[in-house]
């Protein structure tokens, strides 16, 4: 009987999993950024809280959350596995290398950037996700909804957290700058008509989404939004 | 015998054999002509070492005109040195300055074990080719050249992939020591021509499996291979290999 054999354990199969989970996380970031950007309505967080309430109560979204965590873990697990494979493929290192002559530094530093993002995610999840899902949101807003915006506001009054978030969004921008177009290449989507478009969209997406995310703690800390 | 005016310091990897632990050794060369090729500079140095009764430095070389792919030298952190689109034998000393220090190392990859000094064993590439980089045809009279019409653009693209000389610069420069550019070029030169179709998906599976078995790393799309390839093999080939591999694994019912 025919089977998929080593489809996923082969070098290309492992890359495929990285690419698919990466694109899935890219899609998630769009939703996450859109909902969070509701704080820019500058209405004391009422619209944002409504969005957050919908995300927390809709069962499809909750099920999606589980898939999201699985996707994220798979992305991290595959990355670790690939990194170990790749290190084993060159047991004796070069005395001199000149990577900047032939490639971008961030394309060679996806592991480092990803590790920085993982550290950020641990802080980020304990700031908001743990509060909203487990320990409970203490206050209610003008409409009587759970006031996640108040938690956000309080968190971003700490300048250390704001700096961490902004630096992490720089890591995110560079991680995506390579990851976005790279995922399409791994999927085999290299085409004279589409690839330039994918690369352009990738640049706009990476910078745009990171800037929007970074603007949130900055706007709250500086009092631009109340 | 030298007639030039360049004086250089070389740091060259010396390793007695595959088992020995190697190290970088300093050498001085003087009166080097800027018109010499890099390998000719090595010939001068070796001549000097032989005269002194030292062991000459072992390095791979053959055609010395950029088509055989033998001259594997990792020069100042780049395969085949600082210039683009050439092999070491096509690199001239005018690409360096008088007084420069040049570090020369062998290709570094688990799949390319050092034989001695700068010479590495690249038979892993031969085994990848042997696993599927061919077409099976019956012997007999050659077909008429125009019996199989092939669009010019497709023939050109196949030929561009076929320009790969198997030098191993892609593996040497890749931070993961991945052989995907090489393997994809060898898959692509056949996948784009009618003669390559009957075994297309079997080929993609076998060659990727052999590439993995040899212990090469995984591609992270940094593009370093494409930038350093002396023959300008494109990353498009890796995408094509990926597509053929997915077709083989997820569409084809044949299992290899």
UniProtKB/TrEMBL annotation, chain A:
Organism: Pedobacter duraquae
Bilayer-crossing regions: 16-39, 59-77, 110-130, 162-181, 202-224
Name this polypeptide is given: Succinate dehydrogenase / fumarate reductase cytochrome b subunit
InterPro entries hit by this protein: Cytochrome_b-558, SQR/QFR_C/D
Cellular component, GO annotation: membrane
Coiled coil: none
Entry keyword set: Membrane, Transmembrane, Transmembrane helix
TrEMBL record, chain B:
InterPro entries for the chain: 2Fe-2S_ferredoxin-like_sf, 2Fe2S_fd_BS, 4Fe4S_Fe-S-bd, Beta-grasp_dom_sf, Helical_ferredxn, SDH/FRD_Iron-Sulfur, Succ_DH/fum_Rdtase_N
PROSITE patterns recorded: 2FE2S_FER_1, 4FE4S_FER_2
Cofactor(s) needed by this chain: [3Fe-4S] cluster; [2Fe-2S] cluster
GO molecular function, one term: electron transfer activity
All residue ranges annotated as the 4Fe-4S ferredoxin-type domain in the record: 155-185
GO biological process: aerobic respiration; respiratory electron transport chain
Coiled-coil features, chain-numbered ranges: none
Xref: Pfam families: Fer2_3, Fer4_8
Similarity-based family: Belongs to the succinate dehydrogenase/fumarate reductase iron-sulfur protein family.
PANTHER family documented for this protein: SUCCINATE DEHYDROGENASE, SUCCINATE DEHYDROGENASE IRON-SULFUR PROTEIN
NCBIfam families assigned: PRK07570.1
Protein name per UniProt: Succinate dehydrogenase / fumarate reductase iron-sulfur subunit
Taxonomic source organism: Pedobacter duraquae
């Amino acid at each position: 009987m025919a089977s998929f054999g080593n489809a996923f354990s082969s070098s290309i199969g492992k890359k495929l999993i990285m690419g698919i989970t990466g694109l899935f996380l890219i899609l998630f970031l769009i939703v996450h950024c859109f909902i969070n950007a509701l704080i820019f309505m500058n209405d004391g967080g009422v619209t944002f809280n409504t969005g957050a309430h919908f995300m927390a109560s809709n069962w499809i979204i909750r099920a999606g959350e589980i898939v999201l965590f699985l996707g994220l873990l798979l992305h991290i697990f595959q990355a670790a596995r690939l990194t170990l494979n790749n290190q084993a493929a060159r047991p004796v290192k070069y005395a001199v290398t000149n990577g900047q002559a032939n490639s971008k530094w961030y394309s060679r530093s996806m592991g480092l950037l990803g590790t920085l993002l993982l550290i950020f995610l641990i802080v980020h999840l304990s700031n908001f996700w743990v509060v909203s899902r487990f320990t409970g949101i203490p206050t209610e807003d003008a409409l009587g909804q759970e006031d996640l915006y108040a938690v956000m506001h309080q968190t971003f009054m700490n300048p250390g957290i704001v700096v961490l978030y902004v630096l992490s969004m720089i890591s995110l921008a560079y991680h995506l700058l390579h990851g976005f177009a790279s995922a399409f290449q791994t999927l085999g989507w290299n085409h004279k008509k589409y690839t330039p478009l994918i690369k352009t969209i990738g640049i706009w997406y990476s910078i745009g989404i990171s800037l929007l995310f970074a603007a949130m703690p900055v706007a709250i800390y500086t009092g631009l939004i109340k | 015998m030298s007639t030039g005016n360049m004086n250089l310091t070389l740091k060259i990897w010396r390793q007695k054999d595959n088992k020995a632990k190697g190290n970088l050794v300093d050498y001085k060369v003087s009166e080097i002509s800027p018109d010499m090729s890099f390998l000719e500079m090595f010939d001068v140095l070796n001549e000097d070492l032989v005269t002194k009764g030292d062991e000459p430095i072992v390095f791979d070389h053959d055609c010395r005109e950029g088509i055989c792919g033998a001259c594997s030298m990792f020069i100042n952190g780049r395969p085949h040195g600082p210039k683009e689109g050439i092999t070491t034998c096509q690199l001239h000393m005018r690409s360096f300055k008088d007084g420069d220090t040049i570090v020369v190392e062998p290709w570094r990859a688990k799949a390319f074990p050092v034989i001695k000094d700068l010479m590495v064993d690249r038979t892993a590439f031969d085994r990848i080719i042997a696993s599927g980089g061919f077409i099976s045809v019956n012997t007999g009279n050659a077909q008429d050249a125009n019996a199989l019409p092939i669009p010019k653009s497709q023939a050109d693209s196949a030929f561009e992939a076929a320009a790969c000389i198997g030098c191993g610069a892609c593996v040497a420069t890749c931070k993961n020591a991945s052989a995907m550019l090489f393997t994809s070029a060898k898959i692509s030169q056949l996948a784009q021509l009618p003669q390559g179709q009957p075994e297309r998906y079997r080929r993609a599976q076998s060659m990727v499996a052999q590439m993995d078995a040899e212990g090469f790393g995984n591609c992270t799309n940094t593009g370093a291979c494409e930038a350093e390839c002396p023959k300008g093999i494109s990353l498009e080939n890796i995408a094509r290999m990926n597509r053929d591999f997915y077709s083989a694994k997820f569409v084809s019912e044949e299992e290899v």
